[in-house]
Amino acid sequence: MTLLVTGGAGFIGSAIVEAALREGEHVRVLDSLRADVHGSAVYKRPGVEFINGDVRDAAVVEYALDGIDTVCHQAAKVGLGVDFSDAPDYVSSNDHGTAVLLAAMAAQGVQRLVVASSMVVYGEGAYVGVNGITRPAARKVEDLDAGRFDPRDENGELLEPTLIDEDAPLDPRNVYAATKLAQEHLASSWARSTGGTVAALRYHNVYGPGMPQNTPYAGVASLFRSAIERGEAPRVYEDGGQRRDFVHVRDVASANLAAIDWTLDAAPGTFRAYNVGSGTVHTIGDLARAIAATAGLTPVTTGEYRLGDVRHITASSSRLKVELGWSPSISFEDGMREFATAPLRAAVQ
């Protein structure tokens, strides 16, 4: 198999490339090495055919697809962004880029696609109330200002968070989330139109070696790690009780390989979404304490919040386990011990 990994020089893309090479696959990488992610990086991975180009450039994409059997589409602008002025870049990078890629795949008859999606397409996670499973509305500013962070029902009673599955309604609540859902819709439309097969992997909180160190779009685990390297205690928003599913990047890479295999046998025109998580719930506070403890520091809980953040979202990855035979191999404890001293991606100036 000849595999094209878009964004293959990035954090998750690099892990997928390494996993595919271990399986003996021929790998081609298309990456723009954009400066706000990679700084002045030069791609040097031996054994990989590298194309320096933007997924929005139709001519470059057509060239990159020559002789390709399967595409693993990781190229995207990630994170919540700085403010709404980021919206055009998110839409261009994520949605226009995906549309250019899919059009070229249709023209060249490439029919197998794994696309990186995200838990953010759900909005808030799933909760249990007096009437069963429910999805609360976005939290009110006045509640957040008052330190009332947990969603409540219409009677003011606290809702109990539970695992969310792929059949839950989708409710993107920020620009990044909207672009990830649009990528899914584009891929689904492409599958129906061309007879291709698509696995959309909804990543939960990915961490591990090679995370971006200091961009405004870096994940919370990276921000905490960078803080302790500066000798500072991690600063935790809200009260630290936000529930998340932290999944190691090597487990995410193995999920991508399982999804690639699935596309071989899936019926033509199939689009299927899969949560990718560890299956174990931890809080943001747990993460901060685990990382800070390696440096003898204690996290600072600030009570601050970011509009657009959700309170609790944790994955049920049972579909991925049952249908694709995948399971995570790295525990939270082992992963955090490694992550505390693992190299991060070089700082962006």
Low-confidence stretches: none
The whole-number mean of residue pLDDT values reads 93
From the spread of the alpha carbons, the general shape counts as globular
Kindly state the percentage of residues in helix: 25-40%
Overall strand count? 16
Descriptive report:
By secondary structure, the chain is α/β, with parallel strands linked by helices. Helices cover 35% and strands 18% of the residues. It contains eleven helices and 16 strands. It has helices at 11-22, 35-38, 58-64, 87-108, 141-145, 175-194, 220-229, 249-265, 284-293, 318-324, 332-339, and strands spanning 2-6, 26-31, 49-52, 70-73, 112-118, 126-129, 132-134, 160-162, 197-203, 205-207, 235-236, 243-244, 246-248, 271-276, 282-283, 300-301. The strands form five sheets. The protein has a seven-stranded parallel β-sheet, with helices on both faces. Helix 1 (11-22) crosses helix 8 (249-265), helix 4 packs parallel to helix 6 (175-194) and helix 7 runs parallel beside helix 9. The protein starts with a strand and ends in a 10-residue tail after the last helix.
